[in-house]
Amino acid sequence: MLGAGAPGARGQYSRGTGTPGRLRVIVLTYVLVALELTCLFMRFSILPYLTRQLGLDSVAFGYLQTTFGVLQLLGGPLFGRIQCPAFVALVASLVAAVLSFTCIPTSTKGVSANAQATPPGAPKASIFDLKAISRLLLQPAVLPVFLVKVVSGFPSGLFLVMFSIISMDFFQLDAAQAGYLTSFFGVLQMVIQGVVIGWLSSHFSEGTLLRASVLIFIAVGVAMALMSNVLHFCLLMPGLVFSLCALNVVTDSMLTKAVSASDTGTMLGLCASIQPLTRTVGPTVGGLLYRSFGVPVFGHVQFATNVLVLLVLWRQPLPQKRDKVG
To answer: Could you tell me the pTM of the whole model?
Structure first.
């Protein structure tokens, strides 16, 4: 267990059939993610109304979101003045940081006998070695899956970064109603990712789930292009959430399986960089599209993009997963 009484307990990964320490780490990880997402969506819900009060249009809001994406991508923790929500987010983030440093083991991934690791005596790669990252990304079993992850999910990312403005202008929702809609989105994500995807993954292959997510993206794109009110969006939201969850879970799984154990962290970092990259270029592109063509353009882009992805997957199947052998 991760207790204070056992020497060397901190930083160790509990083994055995019971694995109470592992369960504790998993539960705590869920709590930390919930804290982070609560604070993030708290900002999402109030920022568009604040910017509207300051006289910014959708394009200017897109520029503002792009600035946020750049800072998030670069990892620059910038804090503004305290509003009540911002203060709560700050306190929650500090609590999450303290829990991370005091309760999360330094290593939660067991080292198996067949794990592929750095050979003894070999120089350790620098974390700033871009050539090593490029070589990892350009592996035949990695690049196609990574491109599908980026391209297939980007149109939905465009829509989601503009969702606050869309909910205010197109759906005519006030701040409280937009918060309820965001909460509904979060509950759907929790149920689908925590229950539905897990059940499906035990009955279907990763390739099948990936193709299913792309197909549903296409259907959701058509529905998004035709929707005219918030009720229509609530009806298509389960399909959107399923596609997003299936795409992220399946591609993350395929990508981490395609690399050695020593490269797993790097690959997870590359996967995690997609969201801030979307938040960097998405708000500006999304703001311009929204101002020029309206909400249906997001459905058109999602439909066209995922049709192309499906054709590629149909003609050129993704590489099969391989075991991590030494």
So the answer is: 0.66
